[in-house]
Amino acid sequence: MPAMKKLIVFLLLLAVGVLVGLWWLQSSLTVLLKNEQEQPVTDIVVTYKGGRFEKPRLNAGESVSFRPAASGGSGLHIRFTDPSGEKREKKLDVYFEPEYNGEIVVTFRPGGEVVLQDRMNLH
Question: Long-range contacts for 71-75 (Cβ within 8 Å, ≥24 apart)?
Fold first, then answer.
């Protein structure tokens, strides 16, 4: 009988863990950085209220994503070095709060252009 109790407790904990994981995945916001240039973008720093994300190098055609753990209502500010070596920065026209979910896509295009798409909603 003790083995059966252990199995039941294990299955219950596993079920709770899966449910919490699914809730976390569904109630989160992801920022996707995409490089559509033919050369790498370097020294990328994305800041938001209460945090930052850094990526030293994003190669041509490469993407990377992160989940901003903002400490309140926030926007995004990005700094990077484009393939020509020019340092650029831009305040992105986007606003989110910790309970938002969905995706914000930031695309680096030739000439230092940064394009923003957001597919967010309130959870």
Answer: 71/98, 72/97, 72/98, 73/49, 73/97, 74/48, 74/49, 74/50, 75/48, 75/49
